[in-house]
């Protein structure tokens, strides 16, 4: 499934208008840091980074790279697919590229990065605060 990106929650990796390709994946193969398309509790489509699975509740936790907090927990039935390709204007970028892996590790390991990115975006475009 191919979808155009909207918003800036995954900036700078995914920018508005990039075409993102998602494939159905086996839940057991999800890894921390994978970008997953899911149906949010409010009914919208969201593609955010997988953070953890809560065994006691059967819920999955996700977070946008520029978001300061986690998304509302998601159930397995809401998971739609894992990102496999981002079509940028300059070039396509496969989700298994080492740069994407490193970026995901950095963002999840150092939450201050999300705050810095959010501050940058807010200064650049104040009406999207």
Say which CATH homologous superfamily is assigned: Umud Fragment, subunit A
In DSSP terms, counting alpha (H) and pi (I) runs of 4 or more, how many helices? 2
Percent range for β-strand residues: 25-35%
Q: Helicity range of the residues?
A: 10-25%
| Assembly state of the chains shown | single chain
Q: Determine the CATH topology.
A: Umud Fragment, subunit A
Poorly predicted ranges: none
Give the class from helix and strand content and strand pairing: alpha+beta
CATH class, named Mainly Beta
How many angstroms does the end-to-end distance come to? Answer: 30 Å
The beta-strand count equals 8
Sketch the topology as an H/E string, one letter per element: EEEEEEEEHH
Total domains: 1
Mean pLDDT: 93
| Global shape | globular
Q: Main beta sheet, described?
A: 8 strands, antiparallel
The gyration radius over C-alpha positions equals 14 Å
CATH architecture label = Ribbon
Structural descriptors:
129 residues; alpha+beta; Umud Fragment, subunit A; eight-stranded antiparallel sheet; 2 helices
